UniProtKB/TrEMBL annotation:
Protein name: Protein kinase domain-containing protein
Pfam families: Pkinase
InterPro entries: Kinase-like_dom_sf (IPR011009), Prot_kinase_dom (IPR000719), Ser/Thr_kinase_AS (IPR008271), Tyr_kinase_cat_dom (IPR020635)
GO MF terms, alphabetically ordered: ATP binding; protein tyrosine kinase activity
Keyword ATP-binding in annotation: yes
SMART domains named among the record's database cross-references: TyrKc
Segments passing through the bilayer: none
Length: 167
């Protein structure tokens, strides 16, 4: 259960994100997915199995924690670890907030580490299919970035892990 925050935004035109606070005071990001019908529910359930690491959870410093999810009729919610600072890598580069090449390389290495983990250390492998700067969320100088909300595959299932990198 979360308490809603005042900030809310569209993500890639198909999702709505807002902040929240869990009963223990932990801040979270809540993403509401769109789509109705049995096929959308089946896809969502497959995604949750993948995103939850098959019930084991992701055990990697470059993947944001998925705390939970809700599927109630047409309502589909994802509750993620909140990464303060916000903004995408694309926005940071365009606005000059990322700094020099050293920070860009650090961010790229973090995303690469997450992809190596998903591709080679997860069984079955998870193949990300939409890595781009607009899908990488930055936390701020000296902390981590989180990332991709794009589509990916675990064999035939599609979903969206969140990547992190230090910069």
């Amino acid at each position: 259960r979360t308490s809603p925050s005042k900030e809310s935004s569209e993500v890639e035109g198909s999702e709505r994100c807002t902040g929240g606070v869990l009963h223990d005071g932990k801040e979270v990001a809540v993403k509401k997915l769109r789509g109705e019908g049995p096929e959308a529910e089946k896809k969502f359930r497959m995604e949750m199995d993948v995103l939850s690491g098959g019930g084991r959870g992701w055990c990697h410093p470059n993947l944001v924690v998925l705390y939970g999810w809700c599927l109630f009729g047409a309502v589909k919610l994802l509750v993620y670890e909140f990464i303060p600072g916000g903004g995408t890598l694309e926005e940071a580069v365009a606005n000059g907030r990322l700094g020099g090449w050293r920070n860009r390389v650090k961010a790229a290495k973090g995303v690469a580490r997450a992809l190596v983990y998903l591709h080679h250390e997860c069984h079955p492998a998870v193949v990300h299919r939409d890595v781009k700067a607009s899908n990488v969320l930055l936390a701020g100088r000296g902390s981590r970035t989180s990332g991709s909300l794009g589509w990916w595959d675990q064999e035939t299932a599609t979903s969206a892990p969140i990547l992190q990198a230090a910069w």
